[in-house]
């Protein structure tokens, strides 16, 4: 059977691991220290068995040769820990600060654009959407757009489908669950179809120097991804993201990703709450 195919090397060599780690860092900015060797080995074994490739070195070469396999490779090596209403205080901060943005935009184009830049399988984007629908009725008549991006095509596809097992929705209030989800079975729920139209899923590599947007955003979520970058990559990603944030727009980072005061000033940001910043320049 395919699953029982023997891999020629019992474990990945430090040399080959170093090549993988260098590729991951150069292309998606994630630093992989040597103690992650066993983790990487475990994640790529399934791909090797599926492709009938019996050595890590051969698989590395195949990743270099095949653009399609490179995407699959990043699908399996990227970390996709996520949940609905994770770090819930950030949604309360949005509720507090959004009326000012609505007041300004109501006089102009009646549009609101939000970017969930490390959205994984869509839980963050849908949590933002539920928050908006629940607290700001006026937005139902506006042109509302939430971009949900990730490096993993597998996660993005899950987000587009919008189906979640019961353990994924355990943090959602029962009222929200009944209002914004349809029950598919005993242990599965799906975001309601009339809500999915507001969320657009895109594959974006945050390490790229520019992103495929024509406009800017009132709010950008960039949570729990910067911790995987070294300082220089983190700085470059922040600078690039902020280019797409409107003046007085809000940037939301993960609770473990606070910026120093010096970095705030360098980026033209002002802290308005815990790891939440306003663009002032």
Describe it.
A hairpin with a 4-residue loop joins strand 4 and strand 5. Helix 2 crosses helix 4 and helix 3 packs across helix 4. The chain has helices at residues 14-28, 37-50, 56-65, 67-77, 89-106, 123-135, 153-161, 174-180, 193-196, 231-243, 261-267; strands at 111-116, 143-150, 163-165, 181-183, 188-191, 199-203, 217-222, 245-253, 269-273, 276-279. It folds into two domains: 2-77, Chemotaxis Receptor Methyltransferase Cher, domain 1, CATH 1.10.155.10; 89-279, 3-Layer(aba) Sandwich (Rossmann fold). The strands form two sheets. The protein has a seven-stranded mixed sheet with strand order 6-2-1-7-8-10-9, sandwiched between helices. The protein contains eleven helices and ten strands. The chain has 281 residues and is α/β, with parallel strands linked by helices.
Describe the secondary-structure layout.
Layout: H1 14-28, H2 37-50, H3 56-65, H4 67-77, H5 89-106, E1 111-116, H6 123-135, E2 143-150, H7 153-161, E3 163-165, H8 174-180, E4 181-183, E5 188-191, H9 193-196, E6 199-203, E7 217-222, H10 231-243, E8 245-253, H11 261-267, E9 269-273, E10 276-279
Parallel strand pairs: 1-2, 1-7, 2-6, 7-8
Antiparallel strand pairs: 3-5, 4-5, 8-10, 9-10
Helix pairs in contact: 2-4, 3-4
